[in-house]
Specification:
single chain, about 110 residues, mainly alpha, about 0% strand, elongated
Length: about 110
């Protein structure tokens, strides 16, 4: 019952976020935190000079999307590997703690002949 409730909650959050996104201005460009931080810094100190400049200049949108996709893919691989690692450790512990007896009736029959 808890699993169904969690699935309903996850679906409600997903649908709610989509509806919220569609209710916003569709023509607005996503500014991101960097642009907002720059505005706040110039409000606080108009003479502020950045410490360094980026290694690469402004990248086209396709390159940024590609880099983000690579980052997301690598993150998925790491997350999947970690989940698999811990699931394997858990299964190994359960098998090590299991009683050492015949697992099925067929194995028991083979052993008695």
């Amino acid at each position: 019952m808890l699993t169904i409730g969690l699935l309903v909650l996850a679906a409600a959050i997903a649908v709610g976020s989509l509806l919220y996104g569609y209710s916003r201005d569709a023509g607005a460009e996503f500014g991101g935190a960097d642009g907002q931080a720059e505005e706040v810094i110039t409000e606080i100190d108009a003479g502020y000079e950045p410490w360094f400049s980026p290694l690469v200049g402004e990248l086209p949108g396709e390159v940024e999307s590609g880099l983000f996709a690579i980052q997301a893919g690598l993150g998925g691989i790491v997350l999947g590997g970690a989940v698999g690692w811990y699931a394997g450790r858990r299964r190994g512990r359960q098998e090590a703690l299991a009683p050492a007896g015949p697992a099925t009736a067929a194995e028991e029959d083979r052993g008695s002949n």
